[in-house]
Each structure stands twice: as C-alpha cells, then as structure tokens.
Amino acid sequence: MTATAQRTDQNTLVEALINIAGEQDVVTGRVAMYAYGYDATLLFGVPRAVVFPESTQEVVDIVNYCRSAGVNIVPRGAGTNESGGTIPVDNCIIMNCCRMKKVLEVDLDNYVAIIEPGVVNYDIQEMLAKYGYYYPPDPASYKASTMGGNVGECSGGPKCFKYGVTRDYIYGMEFVTSDGKVRWVGGRDFCSEPFYDITRMMCGSEGTLGYMTKFAIRIEPIPAAKRTMLAFYNEPVDAAQSVADIVAAGIVPTTLEMMDNLIINTAEDATGAGLPRDAGAMLIIEVDGPAYGDLDDQVKTITSVVEKAKPKQFKIATTAAEVDACWLARRVAIGSVAHRAPSYSMQDITVPRSEFPQAVAGIVKTSKDFDLDIGILAHAGDGNFHPLVLFDQRNKEQSERVHKAEAALVKMALDLGGTMSGEHGVGLLKKPLLTSEYEPVTMGAFRKIKRAFDPINRMNPTKIFDL
Known about the structure:
Elements: H1 3-21, E1 26-27, H2 29-36, E2 49-51, H3 56-69, E3 72-76, E4 92-96, E5 103-107, E6 112-115, H4 121-129, E7 133-134, H5 147-153, H6 160-163, E8 170-176, E9 182-186, H7 198-202, E10 211-218, E11 220-221, E12 225-233, H8 236-248, E13 255-260, H9 261-271, E14 281-289, H10 295-308, E15 313-316, H11 320-331, H12 333-336, E16 343-346, H13 356-369, E17 374-375, E18 377-379, E19 384-385, E20 388-391, H14 396-415, H15 434-437, H16 440-453
C-alpha cells in the first residue's frame, strides 16, 4: 500500500468519526499521539485518532463503523491506570469516555445512583456529600480517575478492607459489544442478577468485552463518626505484625494503610505534613460507624495491639487538620517518589492477610537481591501491596534488573497464596506473567469468554492475552 493510499484511509476514518461525533469530539495527529498514547506506566503507543462520544448512540455508531472498517477500539478514561490497559495498539482508535459525564439519577430511598462512565470519582463524592451520602471505593487517583476506568480495572482504595472494591458497588450496567448491540445487565439492587453474574464479570474486564456506557452504583450514608490513628515504627516488619494482630483481634478498620521509610520521606518532601523522617514505617488506621457505636472501644483495642510492637510513636488525630494532613501524605505518596528517582515501576501484588509480615520481608529481600530501592506502600488491611521500584529508565542494565525484580515480587506473592494484581489489572504490563498464576485450562476459559463477547477481537485487543 502506498503512502498516499494510507493517508486516504486515515482521512476516511477521521471523516467518518467527525460525522458521528462532531469535529469538536475528534482529535488526531501529534496531540492524539502525545496526550493519549500513554498511561501511568512507561509504555507508549500511537492511536490513529481519539474520539469522545457523548451518548450511547454515538458509541454504537462508532463501534459499527469500526467493525465495518476493520479498526480496533481501545477504551480510555483519564489514563491513570497502572497496567498498560489503555495503551493504543496497532490500527486502533481510542474511544474516550470523559465527555459522557452525566449523573442521570440519584435515588436516596434505594441507595443507588445512575451515572455515565466519564464521571470523575471525586466529583461523584462531592455531589453525594450534599445529600449526606458517599460512594466508598476511592482509589488514590480519585481526583482524576473516571468511574469507567475504576470499573474497568475494578479499583480498590484505602476503604476497601471494610467496604470492598468497585465490583461490590456496581448493581448493574449498560455496555456496547463489538456487534454494536446495547446490553443492560444487573439492576438497581443486590438481587438483580439471578442467573450468570455478567455485571461482576464486566468489572475488571479492562474494556476487552465491551464499552461500558452507564452504571447503577450503590451509595451509602456517610458514617456519623470516625477515629483516625497514626502509628510509627522502627521497622516495617513491626508495622506488618501490628496489621496481622489488629485483624486477629477482630477489628475491621475502615482503612489500614502502610508506608515505609522511603515513602514517608518522599511524601514528607512533597507535603511537609510533619511525618517523622526516621520512622521505619507508619500505619494510618481509621475506624468509622454510628456516633453511638463502639468506636472508643475499637480505639482502645487498637491502641493495646499497637503498643505490643513498641512503636516509636502512636497518636490519635484530634482535629480535622491532622486527619487531612495524614491523608494528603498518603494520597501523594506514589507521585512523591519523583523526588528520589526519575522512574518507578509500581507493582500490585496481594497476599492473604495472615501472610502480610512475610510479604513485607519478601519485598525487603527483593530490594537487597537486586540492589534496587523499593518503597513499600500497602492497603495493609486486605494484603494489597504497591511496591514502588525506583530506577532510571535511561540505564539499560538497571532497567533489566527492575524487570527481574518485578517477576520476583509476583512469584513471592503467588508462593504466599496471593495474586499478581489486586486492583490495577493485567493490561500489557503483567500479560507475560499471567500464566504464572493461571493454568492453561483456566486461560482457555478466559479466551472463550472473550470470544463470546467479542468474536472479532476488536475491543481492546492484545490486552491481557492474545487471541
């Protein structure tokens, strides 16, 4: 095919997308390549165009056109994902949900809201707060990440220990498959999926089964009271033991977050929150419930458990400013490592809670084995680690060690009975490691599900596995 013919094909594609969505909703050229060719990984790709549908019907029309033109579709939200799931692939357009951002209904009587995928997590929280309600899953990227991306990756967040992850808050959804058909699965309450639970199957599917266009989300009244505690330790293993002991004591905190010395220092560099720089690790512990509940008793039990580990410091936040400061440090922790190194690889391994101390020791060992700085950040309550491997991408030898360390961390998690991904997904980044966790017969079942929903392999192809 000649260069002229290729250019004509591109013109035809762009013209068709403009006819469907309007010129203001189609982006091409260098802007599309540089603004939408990456996510929060170090991966990069080049889309043929980026289109921003504003309705389900526009999604249908775009899907139908791409099917007839033989063009692949990569769904995308804000691009904050950590697994390469929104990286453009060969001969693809990116279909970005960010302009489908309506809150269509808020039904307080039934604890449900109907929203479009482009609604930002933080924005739905702010809107619901006016009614005294909230949506519990709140990943660290919640001020930017879209609900479509949260559902696609089945995001978690600091509150997931007590309240669960995204799939636990999606009653039903509307989505468009590669044949251009609109489907609604689930409903508006927990009892709406009496047969195959396709709603939960779509959560975490990373856009490989269809393009999601509406969600019925579960909302909750804001708890009337909460208590926030900070514990600082000499060593990460001491903090890890407190995590195991708190759970063993029968306490289910709202949040139980861990940061090691490296992350404490980079977060302090970024925020000046007053964190002790000599602490080996810290825990943010929060409990919530009714104002008349047993929060004070829970705080007493947690205090007793933590003191067994002889912490450097333990305090109960007494003002809203103290609470906000510690959460600001946690929210910026990932980005703050830029103060220490130009590049980082963030893993998403998860282990059973009982194995949490062993996993901390395993991360420390991996850091020494490969001579790499690895910061430990964790949703400690549910055993979900985000080890941050710091390096310089320009150093080829160091980059090769990083990849070996990544594989070692995954193997460690699997050996402890865990998983390679707790909430960030597989995408392109962990695709080579997926067969370490799943047997060939299970991988075969996954491929059959993909073919059932997308037999022509147009929806986010090459992600997770190849067909």
